[in-house]
Amino acid sequence: MDYKLDQAGIFITAEIHIKDNVSLAQGLAAIRQFCADMNSEPGCSLAMATQHKTNPKQFVFWERYDDQAAFDAHFAAPHTQAFINAGLTELKQAFDYQRLATEE
User: Fold this and answer.
1) In 45-71, which positions are buried (b, 16+ CB within 10 angstroms) versus exposed (e)?
2) 8 touches 68 (CB < 8 A)
3) Distance CA 70, CA 41 (A)
4) Which of the 8 DSSP states describes residue 96?
5) Which residues are 62's β-sheet partners?
6) How far apart are alpha carbons 86 and 6 in whole angstroms?
7) pTM of the predicted model as reported, rounded to 2 decimal places
8) Which sign does the torsion angle of CA 70, 75, 79, 80 carry?
9) Number of C-beta neighbours around residue 14 at 10 A
């Protein structure tokens, strides 16, 4: 799979926690489906969740979008809004970066 990690784009890192009142199984199912949905978005070349080794309800998402329009479309997508509105997780922090420009 070509993730385009060596190309310009928007790189997102987000820390997500499954809420205390949500079962791990329910949260995992939602996160797995959300990642699958993100990976089907045009302009998203990578969406994956990594799980903390000792706190199984804590995750870091890594995402890469071709450009700002693809990133904006991600938030407008029905599956993104459904994931957010389900209220199973909470966003702890997020970072929005771009690839370091090469010297000109």
Assistant:
1) bbbebeeeeeeebebebbbbbbeeebb
2) no
3) 8
4) E
5) 13, 48
6) 34
7) 0.88
8) positive
9) 16
Is residue 80 scored above 80 in pLDDT? yes
CA distance 66 to 8: 7
Question: Residues 6 or more apart from 101 whose CB is under 8 A from it?
Answer: 8
| Dihedral, CA of residue 26, residue 28, residue 31 and residue 36, to nearest 10 | -110
Concatenating the DSSP letter of every residue in 7-49 gives SSSEEEEEEEEE-TTS-HHHHHHHHHHHHHHHHTSTTEEEEEE
Q: Which of 61, 64, 56 is nearest to 28 (CA)?
A: 56
Residue 58 reports pLDDT greater than 60: yes
* Mean pLDDT along residues 11-33: 97
10 Å CB burial of residue 11 (0-12, 13-18, 19+) is: middle
Query: Do residues 6 and 94 make contact, with C-beta atoms less than 8 angstroms apart?
Result: no
Q: Which two tokens stand for residue 72?
A: 């904006």
